[in-house]
Amino acid sequence: MTEKQNITVAIEPALLKQARALAARRGTSISALLADELRRLVTEDRTYESARRKALAMMRTGIGMESGRMEDRNEIHDRSRFR
């Protein structure tokens, strides 16, 4: 079993009451609810940071669009090709 550490969290009594009811409906504890949410937040942050690093690397190196010629301004704004 994984080692766990206790923490103290201060929340408003009304929120605590609602959290107890939510945990009871889900058949779990407030501690488990908090641990799951913290796990989700950490994973989400890690995923975001990974995507951010990849995007910055792509911005530095480019995305390989050198294979064709660049359209000039008139070609870019020519709407007749969409009609």
User: What general outline do the C-alpha atoms trace?
Assistant: elongated
Order of helices and strands: HHH
Major sheet, described briefly?
none
Calculate Rg over CA atoms: 25 Å
Overall mean pLDDT = 88
Percent of sequence in beta strands: under 5%
The total beta strand count reads 0
Uncertain runs are none
Helix count, DSSP H or I runs of 4 or more residues: 3
User: What is the SS-derived class?
Assistant: mainly alpha
How helical, in percent, are the residues?
55-70%
- What is the rounded distance between the termini? 65 Å
Summarize the entry for a quick read.
This protein has 83 residues and is mainly alpha-helical. It has helices spanning 13-26, 30-61, 73-76.
Describe the structure.
The protein has a domain at 30-59. The chain has three helices and no strands. The chain has helices spanning 13-26, 30-61, 73-76. The protein is elongated, with a radius of gyration of 25 Å. The model has no long low-confidence stretch (mean pLDDT 88).
